[in-house]
């Protein structure tokens, strides 16, 4: 049962889990000892960061290669000369 639950996990998955868990523990520790003004500013910063991450394109958040648009086969290149027949 446990083997099926963690099937396919690799080192990157475990690093993400550890990073998110440690970040959550750090934030909870900070919020426990911070006063209300600091909590207000931290909440505002988190809102701004989440809005930025929501509207940012995925290749800015992660190092993904930029996709290259393939040229379809039915596209014909047309050259335009500066001459006119008037």
Describe the structure in your own words.
The protein has 86 residues and is mainly α. The chain has a domain at 9-56. Helix content is 59%, strand content 0%. It has 4 helices and no strands. The termini are far apart. The model has no long low-confidence stretch (mean pLDDT 75).
Write the layout of secondary structure elements.
Layout: H1 2-5, H2 11-33, H3 36-55, H4 58-61
Give a nutshell description of this structure.
Helix content is 59%, strand content 0%. It contains 4 helices and no strands.
Jot down its keywords.
single chain, 0% strand, 86 residues, 59% helix, 4 helices
Structural class: mainly alpha
Residue share in helices?
55-70%
| General form | elongated
Largest sheet: none
Number of helices: 4
Distance between the termini: 82 Å
How much is the radius of gyration in Å?
Answer: 26 Å
The average pLDDT value, as a whole number, equals 75
Extract low-pLDDT stretches.
Answer: none
Number of strands: 0
**Order of SSEs:** HHHH
């Amino acid at each position: 049962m446990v083997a099926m639950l963690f099937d396919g996990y690799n080192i990157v998955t475990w690093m993400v889990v550890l990073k998110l868990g440690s970040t959550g523990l750090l934030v909870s520790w900070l919020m426990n000892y911070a006063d209300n003004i600091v909590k207000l500013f931290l909440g505002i910063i988190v809102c701004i960061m989440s809005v930025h991450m929501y509207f940012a394109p995925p290749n800015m958040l992660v190092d993904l290669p930029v996709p290259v648009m393939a040229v379809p086969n039915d596209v014909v290149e047309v050259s335009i000369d500066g001459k006119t027949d008037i």
